Amino acid sequence: MRLSITREKLQEGLGAVAATIPNKTTLPVLSNILLRAQGARLEMSGTDLDISVSVGVDAEVEQAGAITVPARKISDIARELESAPVHLVADGDQIELSCGKSRFKLFGLPEGEFPSFPEVDFSESWKVTAGTLQELIGHTAFAASTEESRPILNGVLWQLRSDHCTMVATNGHRLARMTFPLEEVDAPEADLIVPPKALQQVERLFEADEEVEVARSENHLAFRSATRVVYTRLIEGPYPNYEQVIPSDNDKQAVGSTGALEKAIRRMAVVASDQTHRVRLSFSEGTLGFRVQTPDLGEAEDEVSVDYQGETLEIGFNANYLLEVLRYMPDEDVRIEFRAPERAATFRPAGGEPDYLCLVMPLRLLD
Amino acid sequence: MTRRIHILPDRVANQIAAGEVVERPASVVKELVENALDAASQRIEVSLRGGGKTEIRVADDGSGMEREDALLALDRHATSKIREAEDLHRVSSFGFRGEALPSIAAVSRFELETAPAAGGVGTRIRVRSGRVGSVDDAARRPGTTVTVRALFGDLPARAKFLRSASGETRACSEAVLLLALANLPVAFRLESNGRVLLDLPSAGSLRARVADLWGEESAAELLEVDRSTGEIRVGGLIQRPEAAGRGTSRRYLFVNGRPFRSAALHRMVDEAYRTTVPGQVRPAFLLYLSVEPREVDVNVHPAKAEVRFRDRPAVEAALRSAVRVGLGGLESAAPAKPEGAGTAGVAAPARPAAASAVRERGPGGDAGAADASHRSHDRPSPSQLALFVPGGARTGEDRSAAGEEAPGAPAVRRRPLLWQLHDRYILASVRDGLLLIDQHSAHERVLFEEIMRRFEKGRGASQRLLFPVTLRLGPDEYAAVEELAGLLRQTGFEIEPFGDRTVIIHAGPQPHPGFDAEGCFRAMIDELTHGSPLVDSARNQHERIAKSLACKGAIKAGQPLTFDEMAELVDRLFATELPGHDVHGRPTILRLTLEELERRFGRT
Ligand SMILES: Nc1ncnc2c1ncn2[C@@H]1O[C@H](COP(=O)(O)OP(=O)(O)OP(=O)(O)O)[C@@H](O)[C@H]1O
Ligand SMILES: [Mg+2]
Predict the structure, then answer these.
(1) Pairing of strands A313-318, A278-284
(2) Integer Cα distance of B527 and B539 in angstroms
(3) Where are the alpha helices (DSSP H) in chain A?
(4) Which atom of ligand 1 lies closest to the CA of B99?
(5) Identical fold between A2-113 and A247-360
(6) Mutation to probe ligand 1, out of B79, B87, B104, B144 (largest number of atoms < 8 A from CB)
(7) HSE (side-chain half, CA atoms, 13 Å) at A283
């Protein structure tokens, strides 16, 4: 392998891949980045065995070839180099890097030790703009569970249909769901359960206006653009029937300013119990009252005016769940729908756009 | 006709009284040493032969007696210590009945040698079976020496009840020991057949006396207690829970300087240790109660071994609270030292008895928070969007920032330095060293107290589940759930029995964001139905459930924690009553003091 590349391109590629390199690993080659020179490109890849990322950048390749090099070291070197062409020459397990008068020799590991990427056939694929993916991921992935006893809930459900797709995540206490229309679908419908970590890579790696092709194999999912690929393992389903638990009979609704509600709850959270984070919401004509009482600490109250006409009703929630929901709400006003103190409440953009819903299960006080 | 009723000659009366006062050599030793102490001696030497059955000799350097007093001392009810009945209420000497010497002299070959400290001739009186044989001059230094030979020699019926010489020696030694613990400034020496059993110099502190008695290692296992509740003050040393259960447990109680026995108060101490040691373990203690003299009656037992408190509940409460507060201090945490590593010669220096244990609390290092009820508030407050928070910020930077302090930000500066080791232990840098905290054990302690409080106060919260969990249980488990449903509801579990051994969980507690309600419920029901050492040691159903739920619901070893989560856990741990101890009787904290580090690195 022998090539020249600008320092900027090298750094761009390494930076994109670095996030997948595991900090601790028992398999030494995983702390390396795979460099492969081919055609007019240098392709850089990293993996933690669950998620793999591959990024191609322009380079003048004199001799094709591949080698793996320690990710941390080569990234640090690239960062310190002057802005000048970089020459890379691999010889056996060594790579020589020179730039201006700087010279480095690093010991790598042969390409053959690097795990191969999953084989995914792109002949059947969905096409989505990266911007849509970013919206979907940004509004749902936060709700996935981090608790290990139900691995399915650790994933984000991505439902691909003939004309739309939906992402859903929940930890069993609160849920977030977003739907976008799709054009140009030439793949069958699918329900995919994707690790949020992989989705975060997708969110980060692709430019908003890029078109991303998505294809799957039995156990893997791949996202591909002209220069980048993300592979991830899929979580085995089935995902619980979430549609069934989204209430359709919530007969009361209140509309208020997302920002004002968030600020009020933030204030309440200061005094909420460390353990339960419980805040009590009371809806009455035109106002939404907030109250927290924490034994041994104190209490707090606040009020925000909302558009509400129904009877007076009190519901308790975990303040942190409410804060998250409001933080992600993509509208200045939020519509809250509810029915009874022990029933789920839902939160949607008051303007009806985009198609986004959050659901929060109440926190009940036992007396 | 001869009269049938007559007054017993003194000699016979004394023999009968001796039955109460003098049971065995150890009671003689006790009475004689007490007399020596009452005579303000600095040094008391006891020597035994044949377990005291052959000979007991007690020599002191106290006030001594004039000849007249010495002769009088052998009469019944001759005492220099009280004059009228009223005095009994404020008696501070060991003796007050004037019974011991005549009783002992009645059942032995008795010799009293004494010379007054003020100077003047010495006296030697020999008594044989209660009759004064001879009174001679004796040349001797000031003080008194009493020699008792052939105890019960004329009374084979009594002698028969004595144990082997070694058994009696042990009992005598215990009697001396008790009085040595009650009189620290006095030097004691005990010999048996020429062999030295105890050699105790005058001690400046209880810890020093303990070290002389049982070694520095034992002394280092004890923590100081000092707390007043109303008029009752409780001081002394109690065993660090982690050290309890190894070897013999030494349990001593004193009131106003007088040793006494009380099974009820021993139970109260054990009660205070609950959850800090495994159920069957009986920790050691040396506790000294000071009460108003009129609050305690010491004249209820012939050998004064028991006392009666006018207000026993108050004494029990004071004792319990003193022990609790002692156990709640950081000093109660287990020291970090290799198993079995001796501390010989390096035991913690004896501290002034005051509440050092209570003061050094919490990584915040705030001193003076001696009152437990105020503790939680003067610690660094957990950052608000905190932790153990479902979905709370849990970023990469968060963790790497552990321990970095923003310059000039006082709120931040008060944070302890925290580090998570292998996703299991939290290392906290504190003012006087390092704490190693077991995250699971620590969370167990936090949850246990929280759940117990829920039971008491009847409040708490319950998170509804989006997907209710359906469980099929064994028949015995189902029965247990039906029986406990009310209590489980108070902990946050909302359970609906569905018939056919099936229950639906609609809501659960949420002790931390990674909490697995289903797994926890299953494990808890299994434990509550089939028992375990943990729940079997519980006192009642509330405690059974709290222990089980705390254990099953606490964060597990292996759970990575963010800095904020660690900070919150540590804060909440130090807001508990017994931060150093989990609910199994294991330590939550190992403590490595700078002092110990310096010693280990050879810097002292
Ligand atoms: N070692 C001693 N040094 C000085 N005086 C002593 C000594 N032993 C006894 N006495 C004197 O002898 C008296 C009688 O002692 P004795 O032990 O019989 O009675 P007590 O100590 O007054 O009461 P109790 O029967 O409760 O022990 C004491 O009150 C004390 O004055
Ligand atoms: Mg006496």
Answers:
(1) antiparallel
(2) 15
(3) 7-18, 71-80, 130-140, 196-205, 242-245, 258-271, 319-328
(4) 25
(5) yes
(6) B79
(7) 22
Q: What is the pLDDT of residues B38-85, one digit of tens each?
A: 999 999 999 999 999 999 999 999 999 999 999 988 887 777 777 766
Q: In this structure, is residue B586 part of a structural domain?
A: no
* Nearest CB to B461; choose among A274, A296, A364: A364
Answer whether B1 touches A (CB < 8 Å): no
B490 lines ligand 1 (CB under 6 A): no
Whether B579 is in a domain gets the answer no
* Same domain flag for B163 and B35: yes
Which atom number of ligand 1 is nearest to the Cα of residue B144? Answer: 1
Cβ contacts (< 8 Å) between A342 and chain B: which residues?
A: 464
Same domain, B228 and B310: yes
Give pTM, 2 decimals: 0.71
Tell if the CB–CB gap between B389 and A367 is shorter than 8 Å: no
Give the residue among B260, B298, B292, B285 at the shortest CA–CA distance from B182: B260
B25 lines ligand 1 (CB under 6 A): no
DSSP calls for A10-51: HHHHHHHHHTTS-SS-SSGGGGEEEEEEETTEEEEEEE-SSE
Task: Name the residue ranges covered by the structural domains of chain A.
Answer: 2-113, 126-243, 247-360
- pLDDT one digit per residue (tens) for chain A, 367 residues: 999 999 999 999 999 999 889 988 888 899 999 999 999 999 999 999 999 999 999 999 999 999 999 999 999 999 999 999 999 999 889 999 999 999 999 999 999 999 999 999 998 888 999 999 999 999 999 999 988 888 999 999 999 998 899 999 999 999 999 999 987 666 788 999 999 999 999 999 999 999 999 999 999 999 999 999 999 999 998 999 999 999 999 999 999 999 999 999 999 998 887 777 889 999 999 999 999 988 778 899 999 999 999 899 999 999 999 999 999 999 999 999 999 999 999 999 999 889 999 999 999 876 6
Query: Given an 8 Å threshold on Cβ–Cβ distance, is B461 in contact with A240?
Result: no
Distance of CA A313 to the CA centre of its chain: 36
How many percent of chain B have pLDDT more than 70? 82
φ/ψ of B371, rounded to 5, equals -85, 115
Number of domains in chain B: 3
Ligand 1 close to Cβ of residue B81 (< 6 A): yes
B36 C-beta closer than 6 A to ligand 1: yes
The answer, for B462 touching chain A at a CB cutoff of 8 Å, is: yes
Token pair 């002790």 is at which residue? Answer: B511
Does residue B359 carry a pLDDT above 50? Answer: no
Domain A126-243 in CATH 3.30.1330.40? The answer is no
Q: Do B187 and B48 belong together in one domain?
A: yes
CATH topology of domain A2-113: DNA Polymerase III; Chain A, domain 2 (3.10.150)
Question: Where among B301, B319, B335 does a domain terminate?
Answer: B335
pLDDT category of residue B201 using cuts at 50, 70 and 90: very high
Query: b/e map of B529-558 (b: 16 or more CB within 10 Å)?
Result: beeeebbebbeeebbbbbbbbbbbbbbeee
Is the residue at B351 inside a domain? no
pLDDT for B79:
76
Clarify whether residues B101 and B138 are in a common domain.
Answer: yes
CATH number corresponding to A247-360: 3.10.150.10
* B447 CB within 6 A, ligand 1: no
Q: What pLDDT does B415 receive?
A: 56
Q: Residue B311's domain is classified under what CATH number?
A: 3.30.230.10
Residue B287 lies in a domain: yes
Residue B31 Cα to ligand 2 middle (Å): 5
State whether B519 and A321 contact (CB < 8 Å).
no
Together in a domain, B287 and B155: no
* Domain end position, chosen among B307, B335, B363: B335
Structural domain of residue B494, as residue ranges? Answer: 462-508+513-553
Name chain A contacts of B382, Cβ cutoff 8 Å.
274
Residues B140 and B47 placed together within one structural domain of the fold: yes
B213 and B264 share one domain: yes
Helix (H) or strand (E) holding A57: strand A51-58
Tell me the shortest Cα–Cα distance from B516 to chain A, in angstroms.
6
B226 and B280 in a single domain? The answer is yes
Is the beta carbon of B39 within 6 A of some atom in ligand 1? yes
Residues of chain A neighbouring B454 (CB-CB closer than 8 A):
366
